[in-house]
């Protein structure tokens, strides 16, 4: 049983929502499998129109959805309105990806008797995997939830979706699913293209269900690892795309600290406190030169920040416990009064923790654990060598940020060290705020994700739900349109080793 | 301890080769990690030249290598000479992939304050993962071994390789590694770009080694699953690209059987008996209309085939046991005398097994297990409906083959059913013989592989060993050449959502 909770008051919101039974999960997956051929067979242009219709449906219900979201998350109207707009725009981006057509990687090789070995006609493209399970996150009730990036990219790929609702916003999840389901039905979609399930047991059953072919997950390292293990211990293991949490290291060079420590302190505090620190891209571990006095400057700025109640009681408890573990480490100091551990319910206090590089290196395991909430750890290093040694202990992360100056001798080594362990390298900026573009990458080496090759945000997120299929000597009437002679869809294709851009046929014109 | 065995005589070949100790594996992985930045930093054109040099080295030592290979595998000179040529050509293909440059998926988005959400400068490309473990196969001592597709694609990606030698051709493996290592050294590569290890324990240590970032494996379902489990139970699970065995279903429609049953029987027998049935693409399960008398025709052709000694004693034993399991199934008949179970050592007898569709469906689990060696299972179906029901029980496979006639009403349903469960769909041909091209896909759904998104053959095999990295507002001097303003490499790039072909700069000209 799930029920919405208002983080501001602790009061319940909306009706009780029963857990989905294992039999109901099985039925949902079975319906998804039955709907799969319809969605897979939809021409790219029509699938694009379907996604655009979902985006319009979200926008049409903006006020209702944002009110529901605010009641269950306390994230506030401006943030939620922006997030809904971004979520709808994300559906539009995948519609654009489908119209462009390059995503299917159409590749044609003519027969070649002189090749080593010789070959006949070969044509390759990416095709949908099948039903996908999506686990919604707590901290983005739109962008990483029922209508979020995992759902959008799976549907774009041609894969039906079964979403496991996050218990932090169950009422919003139900209503979002209703709105999407109505829009799907209006577009002629059969039952089963999108289904919502509730409850932890339902989530495990979903990952184990034989009809499910891949999983998208955003959430905690513990929960993610448990479901990853379910996926990998199936008789037929399936891809598990888990985004599990990230420490997001920042390096401030001596030159940058000397030139603009005030600006850096302000920017860092703003980024770390955004959404009360409940961003997976929160800068959680910051390396600063010891001479610059940056830790105190950061603390002064963080002290000015407003901390709203955290999303769930479990997150608030996890934050207090994580903070306690760090503060037990020898050499670690809290720079703010905090009372973080004493506060009640969803409300916690912000904190800035500081430690020197030697003490950090002696206890890196504890100090590189993500502490989800309004805290950042500032590590003071004495020299570039010490910084390099400390960076070597930083685990895989979604982002790495470098603050450096022009012709800064410390910039290149720090950039190289960060690039080796992160999915996005930011220069003189901040990691929070994940743009939804063709070039975005929101992923990274373990432990940040369970699938280092893939992204959960940006155009290439679609790749997670597609598999290659090569057709050998298959006559035209049995080939998908993307691979037929004459390029009827007008999409980019690689022909006999040469990339070609295709025409405009697929973009609204005639073949 | 490993030692080569001549399959023809059972005699030992070459000296004893000691197992690599866990400490030696650790040292090899550590050297690979140290060599990684050098290989990753090599410009695409220079890395292409390195691969081409490896191909030349193989060709220069063709006679020596083929003689060694024949002594340890008995595959015969024509086949081995052809396989070496294909292996060298494979290195050339990856050199071409590097010169082309599209593999790195360079994608640039200009700052856009009007986007939802707004964004600054973002540039994405694929970068090398890090050291890769490669497990060589028994049945292709060149193409899927030390210098094979996994090694070629990993080096092309910029990843050092530690190869676990297959015990079926240990002497050849050592000599191949020496030749590659000399060529690498001549090209200025540091120690650690390629290392060979021996022994099962070394293999497990390799998959568990913290420096290893991905595994390429070709081999048995049992061995593959055990190593997959090691990879997935690491604290930081890594991608495991296992090609584990495949039943490779074939469907012959009623019309095709009526039009050319003699040709089909001959083609099937030739494909199934190629290399004494020791191909991962062997057509192992063939659905034929019951009226056409095809099982006996196939058996007559198979009876004419020459069966050479199998590669290893373990494979021969596995073949006999697998055949026994099938022959115990009610309704299954052996069409040849065989004496398969009575034969000694590496020598076995060919077999054709037949069963009707009802008996097949009652025992699909046993009859869809790959039996590696010279046998194929022919299933007689009475009508298209029965065929569809039987096909629904066929597990994931590398290939599916359809024999149909023009305007054949049974073609499309069978093609759709096959396409849903295979990585390559062949029309009126045979699955053995895997061309090495841009459009090739050698992979498929579980249980054929452990990574349905990826291929072990063809240009896109490189994708397995690359991860995305996005640069946000990073100045030109800290960017890789592939992402710099002005496209200095002249490679295909997607700029502000539009695919561009780039110039010829990267193909030997000047920027």
TrEMBL record, chains A, B:
<feature type="region of interest" description="Disordered">
    <location>
        <begin position="1"/>
        <end position="20"/>
    </location>
</feature>
<feature type="domain" description="Aldehyde dehydrogenase">
    <location>
        <begin position="5"/>
        <end position="443"/>
    </location>
</feature>
<dbReference type="InterPro" id="IPR044151">
    <property type="entry name" value="ALDH_KGSADH"/>
</dbReference>
<dbReference type="InterPro" id="IPR016162">
    <property type="entry name" value="Ald_DH_N"/>
</dbReference>
<protein>
    <submittedName>
        <fullName>NADP-dependent aldehyde dehydrogenase</fullName>
        <ecNumber>1.2.1.4</ecNumber>
    </submittedName>
</protein>
<dbReference type="InterPro" id="IPR050740">
    <property type="entry name" value="Aldehyde_DH_Superfamily"/>
</dbReference>
<dbReference type="InterPro" id="IPR016161">
    <property type="entry name" value="Ald_DH/histidinol_DH"/>
</dbReference>
<keyword id="KW-0560">Oxidoreductase</keyword>
<dbReference type="InterPro" id="IPR015590">
    <property type="entry name" value="Aldehyde_DH_dom"/>
</dbReference>
<dbReference type="InterPro" id="IPR016163">
    <property type="entry name" value="Ald_DH_C"/>
</dbReference>
<dbReference type="GO" id="GO:0033721">
    <property type="term" value="F:aldehyde dehydrogenase (NADP+) activity"/>
</dbReference>
<dbReference type="Pfam" id="PF00171">
    <property type="entry name" value="Aldedh"/>
</dbReference>
């Amino acid at each position: 049983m799930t029920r919405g909770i208002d983080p501001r008051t602790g009061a319940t919101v909306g009706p009780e929502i029963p857990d989905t039974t294992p039999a109901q999960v099985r039925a949902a997956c079975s319906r998804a499998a039955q709907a799969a051929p319809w969605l897979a067979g939809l021409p790219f242009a029509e699938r694009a129109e379907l996604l655009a219709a979902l985006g319009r449906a979200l926008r049409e219900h903006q006020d209702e959805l944002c009110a529901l979201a605010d009641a269950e998350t306390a994230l506030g109207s401006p943030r939620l309105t922006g997030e809904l707009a971004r979520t709808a725009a994300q559906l539009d981006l995948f519609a654009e990806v489908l119209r462009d057509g390059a995503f299917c990687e159409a590749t044609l090789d003519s027969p070649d008797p002189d090749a080593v070995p010789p070959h006949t006609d070969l044509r390759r493209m990416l095709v949908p995997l099948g039903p996908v399970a999506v686990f919604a996150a707590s901290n983005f009730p739109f962008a990483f939830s029922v209508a979020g990036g995992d759902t959008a990219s799976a549907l774009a790929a041609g894969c039906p979706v079964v979403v496991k609702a996050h218990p932090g916003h169950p009422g919003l999840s139900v209503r979002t699913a209703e709105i999407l389901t109505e829009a799907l039905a209006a577009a002629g979609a059969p039952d089963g293209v999108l289904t919502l399930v509730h409850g932890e047991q339902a989530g495990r059953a979903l990952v184990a269900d034989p009809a499910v072919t891949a999983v998208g997950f955003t959430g905690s390292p513990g929960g993610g690892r448990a479901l990853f293990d379910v996926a990998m211990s199936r008789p037929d293991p399936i891809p598990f795309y888990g985004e599990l949490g990230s420490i997001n290291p920042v390096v401030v060079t001596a030159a940058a600290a000397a030139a603009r420590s005030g600006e850096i302190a302000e920017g860092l505090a703003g980024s770390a406190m955004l959404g009360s620190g409940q961003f997976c891209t929160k800068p959680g571990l910051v390396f600063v030169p010891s001479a610059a006095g940056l830790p105190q400057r950061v603390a002064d700025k963080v002290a000015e920040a407003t901390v709203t109640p955290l999303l769930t009681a479990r997150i608030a408890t996890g934050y207090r416990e994580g903070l306690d573990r760090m503060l037990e480490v020898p050499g670690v100091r809290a720079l703010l009064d905090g009372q973080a551990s004493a506060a009640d319910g969803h409300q916690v206090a912000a904190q800035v923790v500081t430690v020197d590089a030697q003490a950090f290196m002696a206890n890196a395991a504890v100090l590189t654990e993500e502490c989800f909430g309004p805290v950042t750890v500032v590590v003071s290093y004495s020299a570039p060598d010490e910084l390099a040694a400390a960076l070597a202990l930083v685990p895989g992360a979604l982002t790495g940020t470098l603050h450096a100056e022009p012709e800064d001798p410390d910039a290149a080594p720090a950039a190289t060290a960060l690039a080796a362990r992160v999915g996005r390298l930011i220069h003189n900026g901040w990691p929070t705020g994940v743009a939804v573009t063709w070039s975005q990458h929101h992923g990274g080496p373990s432990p940040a994700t369970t699938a280092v090759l893939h992204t959960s945000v940006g155009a290439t997120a679609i790749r997670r739900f597609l598999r290659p299929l090569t057709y050998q000597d298959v006559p035209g009437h049995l080939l998908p349109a993307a691979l037929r002679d004459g390029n009827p869809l007008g999409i980019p294709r690689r022909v006999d080793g040469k990339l070609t851009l295709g025409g405009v046929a697929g973009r609204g014109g005639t073949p």
